[in-house]
Design goal:
globular; about 45% strand; alpha+beta; 4 helices; single chain; Alpha-D-Glucose-1,6-Bisphosphate, Chain A, domain 4; 7 strands
Length: about 150
């Protein structure tokens, strides 16, 4: 097992139409407004952004996100990630009852030296940190969309 490789999946049930969720998720520069752990987003090019992320643990992750796939009709947004994490992340947005189900999939390898050093003993804590970050993101997006 590669202790520095992670696979995540999060499911966000949201009480608003898929088009509204997709629209919010494609505006990556707005993430810091509703997702507290996304501390900063700087557009580098039309399809590339630099993100600074920090959840509960006292370290920042800095990643470059490059658009790899954008399919509004299929509800898919995917980025290639590089920097402190290498890999990809994908949102898939679909109708779910009266609202939307947003599925987040991510496969990454950690490059940040501090996290690599603590890969084995820290793995459960890093996974919990990610889970808490995703929970906060869901709450923030839901609140932001309901306010509109």
């Amino acid at each position: 097992m590669d202790w520095n490789r992670y696979r995540f999946r999060s499911l966000w049930a949201l009480p608003v139409p898929p088009a509204a969720v997709y629209g919010a998720l494609e505006r990556i520069e707005d993430y810091p407004r509703w997702w507290p752990q996304v501390r900063a987003v700087e557009r580098v090019e039309d399809t590339t952004a630099l993100l600074r992320i920090r959840s509960l643990l006292p370290y920042d992750l800095v990643v470059t996100a490059r658009e790899a796939r954008r399919e509004p009709d299929a509800g898919v947004l995917e980025v290639a990630l590089s920097g402190d994490l290498d890999g990809w992340a994908r949102w898939t947005v679909a109708p779910h009852g009266p609202g939307t189900l947003a599925r987040y999939d991510q496969v990454v390898e950690v490059n940040k030296p501090l996290l690599r050093r603590f890969a084995v003993p820290g793995r459960p804590v890093f996974r919990l940190n990610h889970r808490l970050m995703m929970r906060s993101g869901r709450r923030g997006l839901a609140a932001g969309l309901e306010a509109v």
